[in-house]
Structures are given as structure tokens and as C-alpha cells.
Amino acid sequence: ERSDGASRQLPKFTLVFQLIFNLLYSMILRKNDISIERLRRSGPGGQHRNKRETGIRLRHQPTGLSVLVSKNRSQKQNLEEALRLMEAKLVKLRQKKKKRLATKKTKTSIEKRLKTKRLKSQTKKTRQKIHSTNIEND
């Protein structure tokens, strides 16, 4: 704290760096694996949107995943959102897909299949066969 009693406020870039540090050194994200690109975004927002590089694109080098966020006015908020999205994508990517086990057919499904087979067979057997013979005209 300052001697004049006012609380010390950290610069914005320090807070952003702290957030990046916390997320990048978590289990999933590592600082060296991610490249951060700041970009200007088009669309509504006027002069502020055109002058400021508030858009953030994160790329995870090992997997090639990419996240682009530019919905907020602040670069810090976009960076936070991009890191959250990247972390969620990596968590989903690392989850092992459960192997599908073949299920055993139920007794009723087997019986139903055999019953329809028998009915089809009977239907075919009972069809009348038409024999054509040469009939001479009178």
C-alpha cells in the first residue's frame, strides 16, 4: 500500500499476465505451447473497434487447435474468454472415448425376428402360381 493511504492498483497488463500465468501453468495449458495473436476486428463498434487490437487468437501448437474471440470491448476480457475456451477444448480432446461394447440381443428380439421370417416364408408358399397353357381358339 502507498503511504498516502490509497490502495495500490496493478496495471492491466500485470493482471492479464497473472491470469495467463495461472491458466497456462495449469495441468492442461503450458506457456510454451500457446501462441497469442492480437488482431483488429471489423464490425460495429466505431472508432474504438477500428483502432484497438481487442481480438485474440490463441493457437495450441501441439494439437493445432485455434480459438478466436472478439466479442468483448476489452482485450483482457477476450483473452480470458479465449483461454477458458482453449482449456475446455483441450479437456474435451484429452477425454478418452469409451469403447462401445456390443450388446447381446434380447430373447424377445430374436424370437420376433424368427417369427417374421416364418411368416414371410408362409406368405411366399401360399401364393398362387399361375400356369399358362396354350389354348387354341375355336
Please give the CATH architecture of the domain at 12-94: 2-Layer Sandwich
Q: In which order are the strands of the major sheet placed?
A: 1-2-3
Given the helix and strand composition, which structural class is it? alpha+beta
CATH topology call of the domain at 12-94: Double Stranded RNA Binding Domain
How large a portion of the residues is in β-strands, by DSSP E?
5-15%
Report the strand count: 3
CATH class call of the domain at 12-94: Alpha Beta
The helix-strand sequence is: HEHEEHH
* Helical percentage: 40-55%
Count the helices. How many? 4
Descriptive overview:
There is one protein chain. With 138 residues, the protein is of the alpha+beta class. It has a domain at 12-94: Double Stranded RNA Binding Domain (2-Layer Sandwich), CATH 3.30.160.20. Helices cover 43% and strands 12% of the residues. It contains four helices and three strands, in the order αβαββαα. The chain has helices spanning 12-24, 46-51, 75-94, 107-126, and strands at residues 34-39, 55-60, 65-69. Strands 1-2-3 form a three-stranded antiparallel sheet, with helices on one face. α1 packs parallel to α3. The N and C termini lie far apart (125 Å). Mean pLDDT is 78; it is low at 1-5.
Which descriptors apply to this entry?
138 residues, alpha+beta, Double Stranded RNA Binding Domain, 4 helices
